[in-house]
Amino acid sequence: MKIETHRPRAPWSWVAWMVFPWVSFNYIEMCSGAPLVFTMRKFIEDPALIGLLSSLNIAFNFGIGTVTSYMSDRVWTRWGRRRPFLIVGWTGLVVTLFLIPLADSVATLVVAIILYQFFQDIAKPYEPLYNEVIPPAQRGRAATLRNLAQNASAIFFNAVLIAQFDRSYDLAALGARFTVSGEMMLYWTVGLMLAATVAFLLFAVRETPPPGGIRREPFRLGHFVRDIFGHRQWWMVYLLYACPIVAGAGLGGGVSTFLPLFLSEQLHFTKPQIGGLLSVVMILNTVVFVPVAGFLADRWSRLRLFQIGLIGQGTAMFCFYLYTRLAGFEVPFGLAVLFLAVNNAFVFLVFVLWGPLLYDYIPSDQFGTVSAGFSFTGGLAGFLVINASGLWVKGYTALFRSGQSGVDYSSAFVLQFLAGILALAGALYFERAVRRGQVVALGALEFTPPATGEAPFPDRPQRSQP
Fold this sequence. Notes:
Elements: E1 3-4, H1 12-17, H2 19-31, H3 34-41, H4 47-54, H5 56-71, H6 83-99, H7 106-122, H8 126-133, H9 136-162, E2 168-173, E3 176-181, H10 182-204, E4 205-206, H11 221-229, H12 232-247, H13 254-266, H14 271-297, H15 302-326, H16 333-359, H17 367-400, H18 412-435
Parallel strand pairs: 1-4
Antiparallel strand pairs: 2-3
Helix pairs in contact: 2-9, 2-10, 4-17, 5-7, 5-17, 6-7, 6-10, 9-14, 12-16, 12-17, 12-18, 13-17, 14-16, 15-16, 15-18
């Protein structure tokens, strides 16, 4: 029987199978990190241009991903409403994953990257599909299974695929001999897994109409803007959403872009060492950081812990920056692991608290609309952060390393520390708005009956009607 949406209870075999696309999704995100940076570095030396190309995914996210998420609530086809976006987007990604390592010039690589990032944001609404298959009562345990699978796959990605990035393999088939690089193996392995994921969605998953009926609504710019930005509470929630991205914890942060180049070109770690380092940190994430963050989140103020995480990660990496200067960039492998592990402890503290904090302020009937706002706001913030990082690294190098060879990628840690202070200020401003009653926990209070019989949320944002 096919996996179906909107069942009151999903068999646990369905829960396990729905993790498979999450692993593929995780690999897509990781390909946008260190592998794509290493590929670009073969042709490009300018850190500002590397930052710009790395930020294309973020640009498409708030330009295309926002509309895709919004419209996936408002269309219906014979294949459902989420799957058409996923199948088209991931099929395009399969093609571009096979083309990227074959690029022989800057021009062809740029075209391949643009297509890669475009299709990545067409395939935006997997999380809504995932939550429509798995009912609320099972989502907590399903999230644990999903995180374990993603972390395990990330360990394989870093320890095996990235570690083999610079190697070459001589192969023979059908009487011909040819050479395949580790770079090709990485992209093509992810492409094959993604092709299997497309087949899984085509033949093993079926969308059924939602309980409230099928909502068909053409895209209207006025409704789109009013639904997403028409209430002041959403602006404050978007501010909270953007804080981790500004601090460097979100996808596309400047540090995640330039960290691989810092490790390889300034600390002179090999690709196998970098893969091992990232794998050790990922193991610590799985075994230590996530459980500890979850333990603290149930016992302390979530907003206060969130604020500690925002400033803590930038502080840890700024200390790493200072140490590299004192040590003359001769950093032992174990000490690099220690600094990155401390940074990740704060990052995961933020990640564990991020979702629960946001959803406390969002009523369930507005989730799709506000998620589209997240795509826009987070995409815009990430685009600005990553390009600011590229310009910062380029300007810092010109100012403080004039006449010296190489680029000072470690300077991104200074910007991360400053951005962490800015993010903390945003979170403190949000906290003040909550205390003044300007922001209401609509999600947390959604099922709390009113004490006097009147409407519990007189100022609640209402969804516009088509």
